[in-house]
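quick one, 163 residues, struct below
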Amino acid sequence: MSEPEMKPLISYTLNLFADYHQFYLQDEQAETDTPDDWGEQLTTHMIAVDPGIVGIGTARNMTVPVRVDLLATRPDDDFDVWDHVAEASLEVPSGQIVIAGCTDYFPEAKRLPVLPGSYRVRVYYGGLNTLSVNGLDGEDYYQVVLWPEKYQSPEVLKKWPSL
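---
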């Protein structure tokens, strides 16, 4: 997998069950009731936002490979090797980011320790054109990069044509 040149402070490689075509990054203390337009946000942009939570849409409703990197600063904007790139902001007052599939058992989900504050979450989507006809198999992968940054509205930086 090609990826942007970054030197993470912390890096996790995970396999997450993307039930309902999504997984979450959320502040450990955030409420998990998502808004009515959550599914529409995920379908249209492959990213959804609510206070304290960022939902990341996936191409498959299966276990998917995910890499999560915490950076000190904003990464370069080189999107050539990626199919889709989207960003959102995440407020993390607790100092713990939970990384989980939407039906994972929350107490056992991976935690990413960070300084309390606001973070920008950029999601790089790759291999979206590798899905089988039934959508169960594929080589899709997801790289999530976070860095400290003030709150900004969600943004699609590179759009996959099939969305």
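The two ends are 22 Å apart (CA to CA).
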